Each structure stands twice: as C-alpha cells, then as structure tokens.
C-alpha cells in the first residue's frame, strides 16, 4: 500500500556545531553507532532547502522506530538558535524508556546534566489520565532540548 497519509516518521534532523562531538554524544546516549557519515552539497541540495548554497557534513543514527540525522552545516555558515521550552516553534526529541530512575542514572553517569529532577505525573498535576508517567528533560551539547519518558496510560503507544 502506498503511504501518503503522513502516518510514519522517518527521521528527525538536528543541526549541530561539531559533528564529531554530536556523534559521540548521541552514540553514548543511545548505545547505538552511527550507520554512516557523509557530505552533501551543491546547487540542487541548496535549492531544495531554500538556500543559495550549501555543504553539509552529516551522520545517520538508526534507532528502533526513528532515525536521527546529525547535520553540521559548512555552508552557509550556521548561526546558533536558542529556544526556551515555551517558545512557539521550539521542538524537543523524546526518548522512551522503561525505567526513569535507571535512565536518569545512566545520563548522570555519562556527565549529562538534567534541566530539573524527574517527575512522575500525579492527579495534582492537572492531568485527567496518564498518572504514573515519568519524565525528565536535558539538552545535548548544542542546546537541543531532549526528554526521556516512561509512559503510562494515553502516553503509552499500543
């Protein structure tokens, strides 16, 4: 069957300042190795991105249900964006875990600082359901917002 319904996600692209540093971070975080690194550029790639010119070093990391593309722009020279979690168009990437405490320990052992201590959703948080779901937030070395979730109720996929 032809998939034209936007019901599957292939990858998320994350622009990074230093590809080698990002590869090390995401390989440590996920326990997976990148499948390849390469370079792409030229007028056709620039055109599809809406740019005048482009040269991108990139790496692909395959997870069970989504791929992560790490992109280091060489041309045009990149600028740094900074988003707070509440800003419109800010996004984050969330990793699903079974045990929030084990995952937090792994992050801390790797030297990754959490934005705040993890919480487990309770009725007092205002949710109608999903109690018992645990979340924690942190950033990658370039400030990309990341989350871990141990989902329950409506947050859990079938």
SSE succession: EHEHEEEHEEE
Name given to the CATH architecture of the largest domain: Roll
Total domains, how many? Answer: 2
**What does the main sheet amount to?**
4 strands, mixed
Overall pLDDT confidence: 93
Strand order of the largest sheet: 1-4-3-2
Shape: globular
Q: Tell me roughly what share of residues is in helical segments.
A: 10-25%
- Tell me the distance between the termini: 22 Å
CATH topology-level fold name of the largest domain = 2,3-Dihydroxybiphenyl 1,2-Dioxygenase, domain 1
| Helix/sheet category | alpha/beta
- How large is the radius of gyration? 18 Å
**Assigned CATH superfamily of the largest domain:** 2,3-Dihydroxybiphenyl 1,2-Dioxygenase, domain 1
Query: How many E-type strands?
Result: 8
Count of DSSP-assigned helices: 3
* CATH class annotation of the largest domain: Alpha Beta
